[in-house]
């Protein structure tokens, strides 16, 4: 065996479950990092089968090993690749279409993504820096901790008077105060629902402006403007409009791709 790759840590190894035969099926190939292959009766389940029923070529083994080395470099193994997204609705209304949109996002999230909804922004007091200097209120600390612990954020904003809601701005103000404001470098997706035809477009652009100063990494496209919301959600708050479900799913996949791209960039910088 011969190591190769940027750091020389990856080995090509092929083990046949039929000793003495000259070819190896895709299911018989196992790759290890700098160690001898495992015995045939102890397959390494971390790596997928390769090549179907045909023989696994050296190029296939090299490609898989290169992928493994790349995963090592970013500190992510296959079983640790779940993206944790924190969803925040800018509406407190019980029947909010924006809160319903976040629940739809949970349903439509791509494989490898989970979305948890933070539903406590109504507990935040109006921002007062005198209060902050005495210590963050528990609800504000909980929000900051939740943002820090997420790989990405997903906001669903209503539109009030051509802008975002007061409760959402208040939540951003509390979360963004020093020390170590948690929005910096954080991947962010934005969407919104309203009864009007623009689907909170103006509010979404104001929300994007907030994150310029805070150095949030907002996903540019796809944009999700859910106009005519009463006709797109049923009486139970489930998103039923197929066109909206499609574009929301595309946005969530874009957020996943954007988050992974930023992670790789951070790991190699």
Total count of helical runs of at least 4 residues: 7
For the record, the CATH architecture of the largest domain stands as 3-Layer(aba) Sandwich
Fraction of residues in β-strands? 5-15%
- The gross shape turns out to be globular
Report mean pLDDT, rounded to a whole number.
81
Helical percentage: 25-40%
Give the termini separation: 32 Å
Low-pLDDT stretches are 1-54, 73-80
H/E element string?
Answer: EEHEHEHHEHEHEEH
Q: Specify the CATH class of the largest domain.
A: Alpha Beta
Give the beta-strand count: 8
**CATH domain fold name of the largest domain:** Rossmann fold
Whole-number tally of structural domains:
2
Radius of gyration: 24 Å
Q: Profile the largest sheet.
A: 6 strands, parallel
CATH superfamily of the largest domain: Flavodoxin domain
What structural class should be given to the helix and strand makeup? alpha/beta
Mind explaining what this structure looks like?
The protein is α/β, with parallel strands linked by helices and 269 residues long. The chain folds into two domains: 1-80, no CATH class; 82-268, Rossmann fold, CATH 3.40.50.360. Helices cover 35% and strands 13% of the residues. The longest helix is centred in the last third of the chain and has 27 residues, at 242-268. The radius of gyration is 24 Å and the shape is globular.
Quick recap:
By secondary structure, this protein is of the alpha/beta class. Helix content is 35%, strand content 13%.
